[in-house]
Specification:
This protein is of the alpha/beta class. 33% of the residues lie in helices and 29% in strands.
Length: 217
């Protein structure tokens, strides 16, 4: 009996591109894009299965072997530091992790001009506490990192934080909320990740999936 490959797909901005990439490689999970409460989808050939998972949970599913492969943003790979294998990069999901602040604020502008004291004790609102801490720590700044789960743009507008660290794609959300980018921290795009045990035990089958994805990416 052939092994059924389980693939984790992230809810949100990467889902449609992930489904399209898999379809080009011969794995059709188009039903995952329909309005539905379903979370598990069978491929037409019956040899693979896709599970649509919240992006923040997907790497946990991969690490513990609930799925064999997953498609996720590189930002979360670096933030969560799970015990997984990053197999390949895709050409979609491109964005960057950036520092932003209110347009009228000059905290980051002053720091860039050499007034480093302006960053002493700065409060940073972010969904990426590890990456934010790492960045400011390497710069030698003592930042107060505030973990948030959504609507990051509101934090500096209501005095919760001085600046934010968040993913930026077009910058339109920042602009609409009176914020401006001041500095890029890292680039990100979608990645294919794998469970270590799955690769070891079912390497031939999974490698076949990987090679098909590489040919169309």
């Amino acid at each position: 009996m052939k092994m059924k490959i389980k693939i984790g797909l992230p809810k949100g901005r990467l889902l449609s591109d992930a489904v399209y990439a898999l379809k080009k490689a011969g794995f059709d999970f188009s039903d995952a894009l329909k309005e539905s409460r379903k979370l598990v989808f069978k491929d037409k050939n019956g040899l693979s299965e896709a599970i649509v998972i919240r992006a923040v949970d997907l790497l946990t599913y991969v690490e513990y072997g609930a799925v064999d492969l997953g498609i996720i943003g590189y930002d979360l790979v670096l933030e969560q530091r799970r015990d997984i294998i990053t197999v390949m990069a895709f050409n979609f999901g491109r964005c960057h992790l950036s520092i932003a602040e209110p347009v009228k604020s000059s905290v980051m502008k002053r720091a860039a001009a050499g007034y480093h004291a302006s960053l002493s004790g700065i409060r940073v609102g972010t969904k990426y506490p590890y990456l934010a801490y790492k960045y400011f720590n390497e710069k030698g700044y003592q930042a107060d990192i505030i973990k948030l789960y959504g609507a990051i743009e509101l934090a500096p507008l209501y005095g919760l934080s001085d600046i934010i660290v968040d993913l930026v794609s077009t910058g339109e959300t920042l602009k609409a909320n009176g914020l401006i980018e001041r500095e890029h921290i890292m680039q990100s795009s979608a990645r294919l990740v794998a469970n270590k045990a799955s690769l070891r035990l079912n390497g031939t089958v999974i490698q076949n999936v990987i090679e098909k994805l590489k040919k169309v990416s």
